[in-house]
Specification:
heterodimer, A: mainly alpha, two-stranded antiparallel ribbon, 4 helices, B: alpha+beta, Ubiquitin-like (UB roll), Fumarate Reductase Iron-sulfur Protein, Chain B, domain 2, five-stranded mixed sheet, 7 strands
Chain lengths: 137, 246
């Protein structure tokens, strides 16, 4: 005796798709610091735009160069500097994750890569600082 | 001495009755310090409410079936010990960023399609006959991809990824990590075949390196690393004159 079983047609299951709230980045400190890291680029970009504007004005000669020295602008610049340092710190720390290469068939340790990045940053800062001070004299 | 108890709050959703998920509390005995969240759910299903639905299988962090959000963090419920939460209550919700099918069960279809799309198998330009012998690998060659082969497809990384949460077209952490696993395999010659998926705007370039995928991975895989390294390699393939050499 054979039993014939008719296959039921597939039915669409109704699913519930939760929406991701706008405050998702406040749920965890990791998300929060990611947003801070990404946000730092915005004031930095504004500050760099201002710098380009100043350079363009300075091209007309010393008389055209009068950088703003108001207290709010100095505070904004200090905040931008802190953001730049934080952004650079996170970026260079990630170099150990991103860069991967071998020397003598052995992978270079992530820590060594990160240290070399920070070393390069320090050297570049000293060189640029020396050049700026040298030109300023 | 009074029996130690713990409150489990679980998401309930019946697609035939509920318009939206709701929470239900269960007060259960916490008899053994070795109890995990999955044990608590099994207790509820066996003794309190047989209608509670959730996925599980191996109970030992191997199969990747029992991923859920435990007190806001994506975890394998078989590896989340109640002692780490007690005396606070434990809130168990489905994995974030996935459609809910019922209670704690999510729809895995999108993840499975993405996994398949990156061709997670060894691709050879020309298959050698069996008589030619096996493809040999040194331990160093295995070490190149070993970490990325530990993935158990538990989807915790997708649940933790806000990029995927905001745009589910993103290929996602596990799929890209698996693609990298095969691209790094010395036996594989399929990098070019995987490139259209990986280098697609919805692939690696969609990732903005939140990094939470690597934090929640229960097997120590680092999908964020896989994605960033693939970005670098893909760029090198494009920039360097010998980049497309296979």
């Amino acid at each position: 005796m054979s039993i014939e079983v008719e296959a039921a047609p597939p039915t669409a299951t109704r699913t519930y798709r939760p929406a991701m709230g706008r405050g998702w980045w406040t749920r965890k400190s990791h998300y929060f610091w990611y947003m801070v890291r990404e946000f730092t680029a915005l004031p930095l970009a504004l500050w760099l735009l201002w710098l380009l504007f100043e350079i363009q004005r300075a091209g007309r000669g010393a008389s055209g160069y009068y950088p703003p020295s108001s207290t709010p602008f100095v505070i904004f610049s200090v905040i931008c500097l802190l953001f730049a340092l934080y952004h650079s710190f996170t970026f260079l720390s990630l170099a150990g994750v991103i860069l991967h290469f071998k020397v003598l068939d052995k992978p270079v340790a992530s820590r060594l890569i990160v240290l070399s990045q920070f070393g390069g940053w320090l050297v570049a800062s000293i060189v640029i600082g020396a050049v700026l001070i040298g030109f300023g004299r | 001495m009074a029996e130690k108890r713990i409150t489990i709050r679980a998401t309930r959703y019946d697609p035939e009755k509920d318009r939206a998920p709701r929470m239900q509390s269960y007060d259960i005995p916490f008899t053994d310090d070795a109890m995990v969240v999955l044990d608590a759910l099994n207790y509820i299903k066996s003794h309190v409410d047989g209608s509670l639905s959730y996925r599980w299988s191996c109970r030992m962090g191997i199969c990747g079936s029992c991923g859920m959000t435990v007190n806001g963090t994506p975890k394998l419920s078989c590896s989340a010990f109640l002692r780490d939460y007690w005396p606070r209550s434990v809130t168990v919700t489905p994995l974030n960023n996935f459609p809910i099918v019922r209670d704690l069960v999510v729809d895995m279809e999108d993840f499975m399609e993405k996994l398949k799309s990156i061709k997670p198998w060894i691709i050879r330009k020309e298959e050698l006959p069996l008589g030619a012998g096996e493809h040999r690998q040194t331990m160093d060659q295995i070490d190149d991809f070993r970490q990325f082969s530990q993935c158990i497809n538990c989807m915790l990384c997708y649940s933790a990824c806000p990029v995927y949460g905001l745009d589910d077209k993103f290929l996602g952490p596990a799929a890209i990590a698996l693609a990298r696993r095969y691209n790094l395999d010395s036996r594989d010659q399929g990098t070019k075949e995987r490139l259209p998926m990986i280098a697609h705007p919805d692939g690696i370039w969609e990732c903005s390196f939140v990094g939470e995928c690597s934090v929640v991975c229960p097997k120590g895989v680092d999908p964020a690393k896989a994605i960033q390294q693939t970005k670098l390699d893909t760029t090198m393939r494009f920039v360097l004159p010998y980049g497309n050499r296979e």
